[in-house]
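We treat protein structure as text, and this decision shapes the records that our systems exchange. The tokens are whole numbers drawn from a learned vocabulary of local backbone shapes. Below, we set out a record of this kind in full and without editing:
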Amino acid sequence: MLHAGTLVFAAALLTLDAARHNDDSDAQLYTVVARHMVEDGTWTELRYLDNVHPEFREHLPFGLWPSAITIRVAGERALPLLSVVWTLLTIALVIEFGRKLVSLEFGLIAGFALATTERFIAYGAMHRLDPSLIFFALLSCGPLIFQRRDARGFAVMAIAAAIACLIKGPFGLVLPVAMTLGLTFANRELKWLAFGAAACVTALIPVTTFVLLNQRWWDGYVLQQLLASATGTRTDGDSSPIGTLLALGALCWPWLPLALPWRRKLEVQPIVFATGLALVFLSLSSRKLPHHVLLLFPFIALLVAQNLSTWPKLVLRVVVGLAVVGLPIAVWLNPTPRAASCTQFAQQLSALAPGTRVSVVATNDGRHWRELATLAAEFRLSPWLAPTVADAHPQSAIVLSSNNGTWQLDSPSP
């Protein structure tokens, strides 16, 4: 009953977030790319906008397959609910891991901690690649957490890690590699290292085969995305050596202080090592993005549980009660960022026919990326990115530009 109650509470929070209008540029970008997959009848040749990623190679196509299927079956409005399902499966998996490691109560506390980490719920309700990535990466750690070194355990780890890699490349191996090393350190047994390494190498076969057999994906994804991000050739994102640590400190609330190993359970010791190692792995790339740390949140929830599970029952109930009452209010009152095109110019833009060309002038602070995504996803227009107003597309119906931080609509020059 408590198990179901935790998931129902998480589902309510996620649905509350998913139901709100959100101009998250990544979520809208993935929506547009998945829409084009359905329109073009393709599974591997992706595109975004006519002059922004006309060949989309920022991510592998496989993570968007469920999105394309969802659009075909239920329409684009169902895309946030797809992420809700992945997030609920992740919370259920954390509960099961905690139950197997220590007890059902421990698992429920861990699941509740994850379900009440505000940013995990916020991202988990967006149409992004992170929810599915986190679920399969975490699932791949199951045989290591349960210490099942048999053929079935190998198959589960290798297949789940392979799917995670197909969704988001090397990020799919962050958790299983960290867990392999963490279990090896904790148990001081090299046989776990051999088991985990073999499963992770096997997991790389599908994605490696795909990029090696597709030259454009090798050039666009491996060289221009992965290699450029790792070496610092790409300058977008955070290049600070402690960027990942700062992102974790900014996003993992309110439970992050309780993740520190104030209390130590031997059963959780491998996860302590794995969390630290995963944090190091995410810090290695020169280009870092804040949402990458979401991969750590399920492990952190288990670390939080080892502290919360020792609290007096009365105190724990008060904490749970405050979270149950306070978090939905906080989620509802916390406004999501809105694009200017959805607020200032919705009436004018809604009057344009779908597919109409609209130029968007680039801004120094990068806010044009949200405008591009919103125009394409919400209004189903055809945005064109222009460096200046003078460079706007000659067939644009409207030019959207920013002057001293204030967006404005201009008629295109004849």
About this structure: The chain has a mean pLDDT of 93. The first strand starts at residue 357 and ends at 361. The two ends are 67 Å apart (CA to CA). The CA atoms of residues 138 and 230 lie 23 Å apart.
